Every structure is written in C-alpha cells, then in structure tokens.
Task: inverse folding
C-alpha cells in the first residue's frame, strides 16, 4: 500500500521543489514486522498476480503521465515564485542601499563642487583685481610717458626757437644790408682751397 505525501511544511515544500520526475511516495506497512514468520493460513499459498486489464492500464498510464506533468508544473511554479520573492527582497534592499549611497555620494559631490566653485571664484576675483590694477598702472605709466614726451617735445621746440632766434641775429635784412656788404668787402674770404681726407687745407689760391 502506498500513500502520496502532498502537504505543507518544510520537508514537503523541499520535496515539491526538488527536480525529480517521479512521484514522491512513502511505504506504509501494517502491524506485522519484518522478522515475524509467515501465517499458518498462508504457508502453502502461491501468490498469483491479479489479472491486468489492458484498457485500464492505458487509462492509468495516461492519468499518471498527466499527474507527473501537473506536479512538475506546480513545483516549477512554486520554485519560480520563491526565487522571485527572494530576488525582489534582495534587489529591493540592495536598491534602497544603492539609492542611499548614491544620494550620499551626490550630496558629497555637490558640496565639493560648491567648495570648488567658491575657491575658483576667489581665485578669479583676485586675478581680475590684479589685472585691473595692472591695467590701471599701465594707463598711469602711459599717461606719464606721454606727458614726459610732451615736455621733452616742448623743450626741444623751445631750444629750436632759441637757436633760430640766435641765428636770426646774423640774418641779412633790408636794415643791415649795407652794413653786411661793407663788412664783406672789408673782410674778404677765400673759399678756393682743397682739403685732404682728414679735412685739412692742403692747397689754397691767393686772393686777387
């Protein structure tokens, strides 16, 4: 006699989830133990197997195949559900932990980014201030240089004016024309002469 074990509990669930194609059965014996002798009424009896109906055998075989398919599908369904629950639990906890870590990392990166932006802003402000100071200093230097050049230009023109004024004293005008003619006649100059490479007069003709 055989009894099919399909029930709740850890052992039964493990057996259902086990990848076996055969039906799980458990042998159930009566009150007689294995060491008891044969009953006197059955001592000379010869066991003859009961007759088997071929039609009934085909029906039982077909039903047993269907039973195997149904049980296999149930085991796979239970296994898939348990694995899915386990995966969802692990994935859910891991996703929450990963989201928390990503949020902390994002906050840390944003804080670092703000600090870096502030540091770069200070450096940029110092650079801009330094550039402004240098530009202002260049403007002042350029203005001083232009003023100095203007002063030198004015002084040069004043010297030229003074030199012209001094040279103008020896200019020949209508007022001193007769006087200059008399001076030229009284002090004749001989420009007929030759000079060497050093600029010395080497030959000069006499005035006539």
Result:
């Amino acid at each position: 006699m055989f009894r099919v074990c399909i029930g709740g509990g850890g052992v039964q669930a493990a057996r259902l989830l086990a990848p076996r194609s055969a039906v799980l059965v458990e042998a159930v014996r009566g009150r007689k133990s294995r060491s008891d002798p044969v009953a006197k009424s059955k001592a000379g009896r010869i066991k003859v197997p009961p007759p088997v109906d071929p039609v009934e055998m085909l029906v039982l075989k077909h039903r047993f195949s269907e039973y195997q398919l149904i049980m296999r599908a149930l085991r796979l369904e239970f296994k898939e559900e348990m694995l899915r629950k386990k995966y969802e639990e692990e994935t859910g906890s891991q996703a929450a932990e990963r989201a928390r870590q990503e949020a902390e990392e994002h906050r840390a990166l944003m804080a670092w980014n703000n600090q870096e932006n502030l540091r770069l802003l200070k450096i940029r402000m110092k650079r801009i201030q330094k550039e402004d100071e240098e530009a202002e200093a260049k403007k002042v230097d350029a203005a001083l240089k232009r003023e100095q050049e203007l002063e030198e230009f004015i002084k040069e023109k004043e010297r030229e004016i003074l030199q012209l004024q001094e040279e103008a004293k020896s200019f020949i005008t209508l007022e001193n024309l007769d006087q200059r003619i008399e001076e030229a006649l009284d002090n004749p100059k001989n420009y007929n002469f030759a000079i060497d490479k050093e600029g010395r007069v080497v030959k000069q003709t006499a005035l006539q």
